[in-house]
Amino acid sequence: MTESRIEFCQVVGDNCFINAEKYAGGISGYTNNNSNINNCTNLANVYATDYLGGITGIAFYGTKLQNVTNLAKNIVGKKYVGGISGYSEAEISYSSNHTLDNKEGIIVGDEFVGGIAGINYKMGNITDCYNSSKIVVNSANGGGITGINNSNISNCYNVGEISTNGNTVNVLGGICGQNSSESYIYTSYNVGKIDSKDDAAGLVYANFGQVQNGFYLDSSLEKEGVDSEFAKTEDDMKNAVLTDLGEYFAKDEANINSGFPILTWQSNASSSQEEVTE
């Protein structure tokens, strides 16, 4: 799709699936040139070889994915696999990858695998997003938010487990496997367990860029990570909203995230739902 807009749509059904060789997404396979996907939700499982995501397989520069949600249980491929987009140069904001009723979702790929994007490439921005699905990386470059960050990540968090299924995996981190030169990670954290027999990182395994206000739960790793300067205890993590994370995050008053900080937009949505219920 080029210079197009998709808004307020939903793909539903646990037994619904999308299967393609490449360029597969729950909403769009290929998103290009100033196109927007807003306020859309996908529940269809997505299977492909390369370039696949819960919302779109590829999102090129100038596109925006805003307020989108992937609820599919399975996103399975080989290269460029993401909960929202497999390959992204887009602005992804106020979006999430998770499942309904705390059922375990899973994202599986060989290389470039992430809870939000398989790769966040030049000019791409991921802001105010989170992932809670399990991520399985079979070869290299995996992370709770993106496999490789080649641009900017801010105000994001991951609570999903990151696993290698016993394979030898290189470049694995709670937020991203690799943060490239002139790339930035701001005000983001990871509490997801990282199950790897190789060296892993709680936040970023190979950091060639900058990380500011980034943290990970010290117990998420079985041994000290290569980025241990970013480690915090559980109590410190739960109180980080008061000391480090600031206005972009809120305390988890409704216990929707096991007491760990949630994004401000989540808090506002939770409050609105409570008002409707009352």
Global structural class:
mainly beta
- Rg, nearest Å: 17 Å
Counting structural domains, the number is 1
Question: Fraction of residues in helices?
Answer: under 10%
Q: On the 0-100 scale, what is the average pLDDT?
A: 90
Cα(first) to Cα(last) distance is 42 Å
So how many helices? 3
Describe the oligomeric state of these chains in a short phrase.
single chain
Percentage beta strand: over 45%
Beta strand count: 32
What's the shape? globular
**Weakly predicted, low-confidence segments:** 272-278
Largest sheet: 12 strands, parallel
CATH class, named: Mainly Beta
CATH architecture: 3 Solenoid
Could you name the CATH topology? Pectate Lyase C-like
Overview of the structural elements:
With 278 residues, this protein is mainly beta. The protein has one domain: Pectate Lyase C-like, CATH 2.160.20.110. The chain contains 3 helices and 32 strands. It has helices at 234-238, 240-245, 264-277, and strands at residues 5-7, 10-11, 17-19, 22-25, 28-31, 36-38, 41-42, 45-47, 50-53, 56-59, 64-66, 69-70, 74-76, 79-82, 85-88, 91-97, 106-114, 117-120, 125-131, 134-143, 146-149, 152-158, 162-163, 170-173, 176-179, 184-190, 194-195, 204-207, 210-217, 231-232, 249-250, 262-263. Strands 1, 2, 6, 7, 11, 12, 16, 19, 22, 26, 29 and 30 form a 12-stranded parallel β-sheet that branches. The longest helix has 14 residues, at 264-277. It is globular. The protein starts with a strand and ends with a helix. Residues 272-278 have low confidence and may be disordered.
